[in-house]
Amino acid sequence: MRFLHTADWQLGMTRHFLNGEAQPRYSAARRAAVAALGPLADEVGADFVVVAGDVFEHNQLAPRDVSQSLEAMRGIGVPVYLLPGNHDPLDASSVYTSALFTAERPDNVIVLDRPGVHDVRPGLQLVAAPWYSKAPTTDLVGDAVGALESLGDLPADGVTRVVVGHGAVDILVPDKERASLIRLAALEAAIARGAVHYVALGDKHSRMSVGATGRIWYSGSPEVTNYDDIEPDPGQVLVVDIDETDPLRPVRVDARRIGDWRFVSLRRPVDNGRDIADLDINLDLMPDKERTVIRLGLTGSLTVTDRAALDACLDRYARLFAALVPWDRQTDIAVMPADGEFDDLGIGGFAAAAVDELVATARATGEDAEDARAALALLLRLHEGGAA
After folding, report:
1. Segments in 108-159 forming alpha helices (H)
2. CA 223, 295, 166: angle at the middle one, nearest 5?
3. Of 94, 211, 267, 386, which has fewest CB within 10 angstroms of its CB?
């Protein structure tokens, strides 16, 4: 038996730092990642798809977002099981119970809207743990798995069971007292006794195996949502094989990349013109700029001339990348006029005296110094453009 495990589609997501028309392209890419599941399911012969929570960014979506999302799911062609998560819980305003969703839901889309066992076919069950609020007070996955004890001698019944859950596993977070944490020990015990055979999780946006069994996985989001120092392995879908001919139900998990976007964090020292040229080369060599977001942290000490060159470099790439975002916590650039830096402007008299005053102010500290450096940088740009 083979299926696709995915999660955290968060359709309707926006990213405030994206440039103008980049946001619609990013939204389209998230839907395209969903649509790509259809060809992938055909290629690998998947029987169905499980989406382990956060299908939508939130419950208050524009009608267009809901309709386009459902249309993308329709094209997948195999059954698609959706689990409500913390972003889209089954509360009073749930998108899953809205008139639009109900009217346009394709026949191949099934909402796992109650906890416990859902029959896929004879001999195969999903064990679902949907969210009903943004702040559950129990381990929903543990509750759903624990309820299986009432079914009796599970390994002997010959049924393959896949758990579909959402949330943080306790070993991955420092706050061990949070009531909603998924208890890893309980899951591994259920796997050891043969009650369940695979646990498909959502919430972490990076692909990750949890524990020692090789049967508990986060698929990550199929399209990137955060920078690579936070989310190192996004853009994946998991192809899961369970050998139902073997009583132990061995599992094989393969990752397939379907995401197209990248959110990259860069740190660079810039202390002179050569460093700026190296930065320029590195940015220039990056492919797919229209689908790449750069968060840039720069440290160093520059002359006003070099700072103006840096600004010109960054201005250019800000127009080319989907976004070029200052990484404020990793940025610390000191700007100080160099001796003789403004001697060749070809000005004299009152204007020269004003420049000398700006240079003196720029070498001080405080808000006036920042304004003076900005004025000197502007003067250099105007001079290089032939306007000074």
Report:
1. 140-146
2. 35
3. 386
Q: Which residues are within 8 A (CB) of 281 and not within 5 positions of it... i.e. 6 or more apart?
A: none
237 forms bridges with which residues in the sheet? 256
- Tell me the whole-structure pTM to 2 decimals: 0.87
Alpha-helix residue ranges (DSSP H) falling in the chain: 22-35, 37-44, 63-74, 99-104, 140-146, 184-192, 273-285, 304-320, 349-362, 367-384
Specify the pLDDT at position 174.
86
Closest CA to 36 of 236, 218, 241, 293: 236
Burial (CB < 10 A; 0-12, 13-18, 19+), residue 293, is buried
- 81 with 175, same domain: the answer is yes
Confirm if 100 and 70 have CB atoms less than 8 A apart. Answer: no
Q: Are 74 and 106 in contact (CB under 8 A)?
A: yes
**Per-residue pLDDT band at 378 (split at 50, 70, 90):** low
Report how far Cα 297 is from the mean position of its chain's Cα atoms.
20
Q: Which domain holds residue 251?
A: 2-257
Question: Strands 116-121 and 124-128, how do they pair?
Answer: antiparallel
Q: How far is CA 260 from CA 49, 52, 105, 289, in A?
A: 20, 21, 27, 11
Predicted local confidence at residue 305, as pLDDT: 82
Number of folded domains that form the chain: 2
Sign of the alpha-carbon torsion through 212, 217, 221, 225: negative
295 and 353 share one domain: yes
Q: Rounded mean pLDDT of 272-298?
A: 96
Compute the distance between CA of residue 152 and CA of residue 193 in angstroms, rounded to an integer: 12
Among the listed residues 289, 292, 294, 286, the one whose alpha carbon sits nearest the alpha carbon of residue 266 = 294
- Domain shared by 27 and 172, yes or no: yes
